[in-house]
Design goal:
Length: 472
């Protein structure tokens, strides 16, 4: 049996941002913090955040006065936000920026006197949040035939928006019907279905043509995951939606020669890795990735949760080292190196009590030209099993050498975007040399200084120059 992985798959930028908001709010404010509704629709993500101190509630009224509350990635009605502000809650809005765009659209349409049709699934939190921006002016439509049941005051003053996670094909059918009934219907300047939803649906369509069976990793409550299953079935493949490897039924694979795997935008990559391992146990002997649309979108975190805010709140002991490209900050926890931050901003060296720490000495040797001094360093660092796998391979790249994101992804049977995300989440650059992972024909990004890859280029040139040096 052969395994074919869809690309892209899994976490989108909006989900990455929402989870980071909860995790950083826990550091800045301490547990507990409250989250209205599931931050994203995935039971594993919710369970992990609950273990860290998040309390998930259905309504803001359940949150004690003065507490921290996070709005989920799906967005909230205006009334919910107003209630939270009236009770002096500390609010962090994790609404996906692409959903916020839809909120702005309906507000503008309403001001223009338009009756608004929202194409989406009734009862879904995103739909409730969007309708809640102007509840008196929006009608929800799920199917094309419902367009003809709409009661409108002025057929020439009708507009529409879409839920960001619905099937593109389903939305297109409703839009076509709207244009038949209302030839002057006003549409958004830019399509509302998000880039990640569209990319994953396109990828699973291509995947379904190559395999006998498609496994979609995602929770039953996830709209975009359900749509992926439907799209796979619509393309002619049998498909199952499952939360994790424990839900696999070995009878699914009787007579199956090729199985495809994709994941919804709220499903962690580690779940895909576990399913691949389970299929290997069932006899799968080959894994390859089907190329798709590359993604490099990142959404900024809200003010108050930037890295400097997290560091200040945690009162992390640290050492500062002046470097030719700027400066290096080394954070310590219980005497162990926990984070390395690189900056183009210069600083004076301040080692505090860490002047004799092995990590500090190794880094100073590295900067002096002994580029092998950090090789083999085995710091204690957290991270998912998938990230640990990526970082282990990165640590094996020799000084002076590089590996492309694609080659690394192929080595661990994953996708370039997931690998890129793990590189960006690496807390110990240089020690875990993610700068040695490059793009095909270019240096690639460097999330430790996202707006300036000059640090990455300096590190690569430094290692190339001293590639003959060795640590004693």
């Amino acid at each position: 049996m052969k395994i074919l992985l869809a690309e892209p798959r899994g976490f989108c930028a909006g989900v990455d941002r929402a989870i980071a908001i909860v995790e950083r709010a826990l550091i800045v404010h301490g547990a507990p913090i409250y989250v209205r509704h599931e931050i994203v629709h995935n039971k594993h993500v919710v369970s992990t955040l609950r273990e860290k101190g998040s309390i998930f509630v259905n309504e803001v009224s359940e949150v004690p006065d003065g507490s921290v509350v996070v709005f989920s990635a799906h967005g909230v009605p205006k009334a919910v936000e107003e209630e939270a502000r009236s009770r002096d809650l500390i609010i962090y809005d994790a609404t996906c920026p692409l959903v916020t765009k839809v909120h702005a659209e309906v507000s503008k349409m309403h001001r223009g006197g338009y009756q608004i049709v929202m194409i989406g699934h009734r009862g879904h939190p995103e739909v409730e949040g969007t309708v809640g921006q102007v509840p008196s002016a929006i009608e929800v439509v799920e199917k094309p035939k419902q367009v003809w049941d709409l009661k409108v005051e002025d057929p020439e003053k009708v507009s529409y928006v879409s839920q960001t996670t619905i099937s593109y094909d389903d939305a297109r059918r409703v839009i076509d019907e709207l244009k038949k009934r209302f030839p002057k219907v006003v549409e958004p300047k830019k399509a509302d279905i998000c880039y990640a939803t569209q990319n994953r649906q396109d990828a699973v369509k291509a995947l379904a043509k190559e395999v006998d069976l498609v496994l979609v990793v995602g929770s039953k409550s996830s709209s975009n995951s359900n749509r992926l299953r439907e799209v796979a079935e619509g393309a002619g493949a049998k498909a199952y939606l499952l939360d994790d490897a424990e839900e696999i039924d070995s009878t699914w694979f009787e007579g199956v020669e090729n199985v495809g795997i994709t994941a919804g935008a709220s499903a962690p990559e580690i779940l895909v890795e576990e399913i691949v391992d389970r299929l290997r146990d069932l006899g799968a002997d080959e894994v390859r990735t089907l190329g798709g649309t590359p993604e490099d979108v990142k959404f900024p975190l809200p003010k108050g949760l930037w890295q400097k805010d997290v560091d200040n709140a945690a009162k992390i002991p640290s050492a500062q080292i002046s470097a030719p490209f700027g400066s290096i900050r080394m954070d310590f926890q219980d005497g162990q190196l926990s984070r390395v931050s690189l900056s183009t901003q210069p600083c004076e060296t301040n080692l505090d009590q860490y002047g004799n720490h092995p990590a500090v000495k190794a880094l100073q040797k590295y900067l002096s030209g002994d580029i092998a001094a950090v090789k083999g360093w085995k710091p204690s660092v957290g991270g998912t099993a998938f990230r640990q796998k990526v970082w282990k391979v990165i640590s094996e790249i020799e000084p002076g050498e590089t590996m492309t994101y694609g080659a690394l992804a192929e080595k661990i049977h994953s996708g370039p975007r997931a690998v890129g995300g793990a590189c960006g989440d690496n807390p110990l650059p240089i020690f875990v040399p993610c700068h040695r992972v490059v793009g095909k024909g270019n240096s690639g990004g460097f999330n430790h200084k996202a707006e300036d890859v000059s640090i990455k280029l300096w590190l690569l040139n430094h290692e190339k120059h001293y590639s003959g040096a060795s640590s004693e």
